[in-house]
Amino acid sequence: MSNEELILTLRSVIQEELKPINARLDRIETRLDRIEPRLDKIETRLDKIETRLDRIEPRLDNLEGQVKENTNFISVLLHRTEEIDAQLHALSSTVDKLCGQVNNLEVQVKDLQAQVTDIKANMATKEDIAALDAKINVLSIRQTNQEAELFRLKMAR
């Protein structure tokens, strides 16, 4: 066999061997041709998503600022509520104390009234009656003032 025949035979063998490879490459190329438009669509969709994200980012920043502002506002409100609760507790204690004092005054007034009754029954002197009456008036005024203060505190609550 001559060199030329050998070359022709080799070419023929190589071409036969390359046919399945070429066919496979053709199939791969066809598949790539089908994939390429799909990739273009995906790229377009990704561009749209990126655009939307670019629009969302400033809104998110704005919302974060609003959330921080609202959180600070809520903290201030909670602190103020705690202060008001403390003041209310103090007022409640004061009202309770005043109620006790009013009750004591009522007892004292009743005792004085009983004493006045006893004095009248025992024919007390005008001076004794005048002194007891003055004490009753003082206690009555104190009671009225404390009742007014108690009423004012209850209204403030």
TrEMBL record:
Record keyword Coiled coil present: yes
Keyword field: Coiled coil
Coiled coil found in the keyword field: yes
Coiled coil: 95-129
Gene3D superfamilies from the UniProt entry: 1.20.5.110, Designed single chain three-helix bundle
Protein name: Uncharacterized protein
Lineage summary: Bacteria, Bacillati, Bacillota, Negativicutes, Selenomonadales
